[in-house]
Write a structure and sequence with these properties.
383 residues; alpha+beta; Aminopeptidase; 2 domains; twelve-stranded mixed beta sheet; 13 helices; globular
């Protein structure tokens, strides 16, 4: 895909297909600005990105996919770097099972063309695994910073020989069902006894929060099999625009009472009001009209999304996360939110899931990444 006209079709395909299938209130649009960056070769990903658009034979776009490479992610996934790097893919949209089958066949063909021994996705060209493919729960709508796809996607990939990798769930916590002991704000006396304090994060202080957050973020997630360290530039770019959206009461930043003002948090939670209904109305385009729409409806957004939370490994097991969740739940109730939704908790991380189960939460979607090894097995090589 090389023309601006094709780029517009690529961006418009997701909302068009959602309307055609009656899924306007379920799908999660990608930011059009990010797609334009992929097209222009801008961004923080380490390798060029390919955008592919497929028509239905009558000149109408019927499917799309993004292909990319990432040496850092391949290394983290323990993929042999002696051979050609794997082919990663994402931004998948298809009109129906037939269109998706042809797209998958193209991925295999493209991997063979570039001698990629493995295909892995759906994953965005970020420093970390984001994306995924829903296998259950498609009747529930998607939300900010997570994936959503129709039910025919998963069977199409399994039939094409792809295996599930890192099964996970999203979660939903009805705010009205949170037990009182999980929603009591931490008192000043309790902060004092523990030698801690909570720092307020303002709209104007969001960049400073991002800068001090980074060391804790990288340390807290370093043991995850897909995590690669994030740079300051990458994190600032990811958080760009949140100041117009954020509810300061939903960002929790806990540090020591005597720690310097710019000390990394000991524990944090980044939660935002869910902007997806507005993004759907504008097809992922976050222009002036969309920003004004967000600002106009900011006080009426009643769903919140926990984007990420973490604790410095040196302070894990000390009860900090419980304090953070109490502060968060208290703010959700006080500010009139109806539910908290939580992105991507891997099934091999039951401790994180238990945090939200204790708040009355339940699993919402099941999702996986799909993985196909194209290298011949040793027995096939001998034949």
């Amino acid at each position: 895909m090389s023309s601006r006209a094709n780029l517009a079709e690529f961006i418009d395909l997701a909302p068009r297909l959602a309307r055609a299938r009656g899924e306007e209130d379920h799908y999660v649009p990608l930011f059009a600005a990010e797609i334009r960056d992929w097209f222009a070769g801008r961004g923080w990903f380490d390798e060029p990105v390919e955008l592919w658009l497929f028509d239905n034979g009558a000149g109408e776009a019927a499917a799309r996919v993004m292909c990319h490479r990432s040496t850092a992610l391949a290394t983290r996934l323990h993929i042999d770097q002696a051979s050609a790097p794997p082919l990663f893919f994402g931004a998948v949209e298809a009109a129906d099972a037939q269109a998706l089958g042809e797209l998958i066949a193209f991925l295999v063909e493209r991997a063979e063309q570039v001698a990629a021994p493995r295909i892995f996705g759906p994953v965005s060209p970020l420093p970390n695994v984001t994306g995924g493919l829903l296998t259950e729960g498609q009747h529930r709508p998607g939300f900010f910073d997570t994936a959503w796809n129709p039910a025919f996607y998963w069977p199409a990939f399994t039939e094409a020989g792809f295996a599930a990798w890192a099964p996970a769930h999203t979660w939903e916590v009805p705010v009205g069902s949170i037990p009182a002991n999980r929603a009591t704000a931490v008192t000043a006396a309790e902060w004092g006894r523990r030698g801690l304090r909570r720092r307020h994060v303002s709209r104007f202080g969001l960049r400073r929060f991002a800068d001090r957050l980074l060391p804790t973020l990288n340390a807290a997630f370093s043991d995850l099999p897909y995590y690669t360290d994030i740079s300051p530039e990458q994190l600032r770019s990811q958080m760009q625009g949140l100041s117009a959206l954020m509810d300061p009461d939903l960002i929790v930043d806990i540090t020591g009472a005597d720690d310097p003002a710019d000390a990394p948090p000991r524990c944090f939670a980044l939660v935002v009001p869910d902007p997806v209904p507005t993004l759907r109305r504008h097809g992922g385009r976050l222009g002036v009209r969309a920003v004004l729409d967000l600002l106009r409806h900011r006080r009426t957004m009643r769903d919140a999304v926990l984007v990420i939370q973490g604790t410095d490994p040196r302070h894990q097991g000390s009860g900090l996360l419980s304090l953070a969740i109490r502060e968060l739940n208290s703010a959700l109730i006080a500010n009139g939110y109806r539910r908290l939704r939580v992105t991507f908790i891997a099934d091999d991380n039951p401790a994180s899931a238990a945090v939200f189960a204790r708040s009355g939460g339940r699993e919402m979607h099941r999702l996986v990444f799909v993985d196909r090894n194209l290298s011949p097995s040793p027995s096939e090589e001998r034949r």
